[in-house]
Design brief:
- By secondary structure, this protein is α/β, with parallel strands linked by helices.
- The chain has a single domain, classed as Vaccinia Virus protein VP39 (Rossmann fold, 3-Layer(aba) Sandwich).
- The chain contains ten helices and ten strands.
- The strands form two sheets. Strands 3-2-1-4-5-10-9 form a seven-stranded mixed β-sheet, with helices on both faces.
- The longest helix has 20 residues.
- The protein is globular.
Length: about 325
């Protein structure tokens, strides 16, 4: 892969959106229905985890599954979910289908995203989950930097996965976290791009990039695809220590670890590598063992593809927690 980092992108005849939020929305609106295949794999195989970040997705899912099981074991009969930056709704679909199977009788879930095309896709794909008895699921177009409509301490699990927080200008993140902490009673799970992660095209494969530049001082990323499509949008890469510092005033931090230190870097590239170099189950198992050893080690976390943080709200710190999750 060749990424022309010094290529000069002419923007004189290109009209950019006028605000950071509009820039980000434009990026994902342009991707449209192609984004789900890039980010999540086959939308009909929710638990196959075959997308680009399949390994990381599985680790996040194991965390979320454990929280659902713990809640159900506490005799909780209802569940409130919030997905901030929901994209095509894949994660809410996963949680709702699993929660329903676990026996939750009432599930209230809201997903929102800044990109209209992603919300439209989420509404279309989630018809199966929305039709389940006891499920109230909505998807809306909204900006995470604005106040949330949820009541104080009303949400059992809040999600803000992958690049959502990275797209918010750093000076605005503390206020976003204060608002999320206000509404989250149970757990908050996020994943952000790390400062040492490999380049990303965000909505397309890296092979589609003609030009890529991350300006770390301005926290702006510029991309030009081979088809001539250009995007400029806010993007911030996090360090582990920075992430901990941002969350500590608002949450109890349960876990911080890197996601995908090795899998992406060891992935076979068919344009360059011979077929015989393709990985097998044995290699995948060894990489998983390495991940388990180094995922939480200082110096390695900042070089993962993403950093996952699991945070605790008041329910997790109260003695006994909430036994019946009824504040809906």
């Amino acid at each position: 892969m060749s990424i022309a980092r010094h290529h000069h992108v002419q923007r004189a005849n290109h009209s950019w959106p006028t605000s950071p939020a509009q820039n980000t929305a434009a990026l994902y609106n342009k991707a449209g229905t192609d984004y789900i295949a890039y980010a999540d794999g086959n939308p009909e195989k929710l638990f196959a985890f075959e997308g680009l970040h399949g390994y990381a997705d599985r680790q996040i899912w194991l965390v979320l599954l454990s929280k659902l099981i713990e809640l159900r074991a506490s005799r909780a009969a209802s569940l409130v979910l919030l997905d901030a930056g929901c994209g095509p709704g894949t994660w809410l679909r996963r949680i709702i289908l699993c929660a329903h199977d676990l026996g939750f009788e009432r599930i209230v879930a809201r997903g929102f995203d800044i990109a209209e095309s992603q919300v439209a896709q989420a509404r279309l794909l989630a018809s199966d989950a929305a039709a389940l008895p006891g499920v109230h699921l909505t998807f809306e177009v909204a900006d995470l930097t604005r106040p949330l409509p949820e009541m104080d301490g009303s949400v059992d699990i809040t999600l803000c996965l992958y690049s959502v927080l990275s797209h918010i200008p750093p000076e605005g993140i503390p206020q976003v976290l204060r608002e999320i902490a206000r509404v989250t009673y149970g757990h908050f799970v996020t994943a952000v791009r790390s400062v040492g992660s490999t380049p990303s095209a965000f909505t397309h494969s890296v092979e589609s990039i003609r030009y890529l530049r991350q300006d770390h001082e301005r926290n702006v990323c510029e991309i030009e695809l081979h088809d001539g499509t250009r995007s400029m949008f806010p993007f911030h890469l996090f360090t582990e220590s920075e992430l901990r510092g941002l969350f500590a005033p608002h949450f109890g931090i349960e876990e911080v670890r890197g996601l995908d230190l090795f899998h992406t870097r060891f992935a076979n590239d068919p344009r360059w590598s011979p077929p015989g170099l393709q990985g097998d189950d044995s290699l995948a198992n060894e990489l998983a063992q390495l991940e388990a050893i180094y995922a939480a080690k200082s110096g390695f976390v900042d070089r993962a593809a993403h950093i996952m943080l699991v945070a605790q709200g008041p329910a997790c710190r109260d003695v006994g927690g909430r036994q019946a999750s009824t504040a809906i």
